[in-house]
Amino acid sequence: MKKEIFPHITIQPDVRFGKPVIQGTRTPVDLIVGKLAGGMALDEVMREYELQPEQVRAALGYAAELLAEETLAFV
């Protein structure tokens, strides 16, 4: 069963062990965000993983939403 958890982002138990992926692909969101964070250019990421700009933006948006919800405890 596939579930959309964010626009263009889905999870499915039998795809990448249930990790969030770009809809219609097997490309994990964390891979895309990591490549951009590591200095890969947007056009390189799109070309290498055959993605559209809105799919890459969705990966970044999903990551931003997760971080916005995260609360850290201070010791």
- Residues in helices, as a percent range: 40-55%
Radius of gyration computed on alpha carbons: 13 Å
Q: How are strands sequenced across the largest beta sheet?
A: 1-2-3
Here the CATH topology equals Arc Repressor Mutant, subunit A
**Domain unit count:** 1
H/E order of the elements?
Answer: EEEHHH
Terminus-to-terminus distance: 40 Å
Mean pLDDT: 95
Count of beta strands:
3
- What gross morphology would you assign? globular
Beta-sheet strand percentage? Answer: 5-15%
**CATH superfamily name?**
Winged helix-like DNA-binding domain superfamily/Winged helix DNA-binding domain
**Quaternary structure annotation:** single chain
Query: Segments where pLDDT lies below 50 for 5+ residues?
Result: none
CATH architecture: Orthogonal Bundle
Find the structural class using helix and strand composition: alpha+beta
Q: State the CATH class.
A: Mainly Alpha
The helix count comes to 3
Strand count, sense and barrel status of the largest sheet are: 3 strands, antiparallel
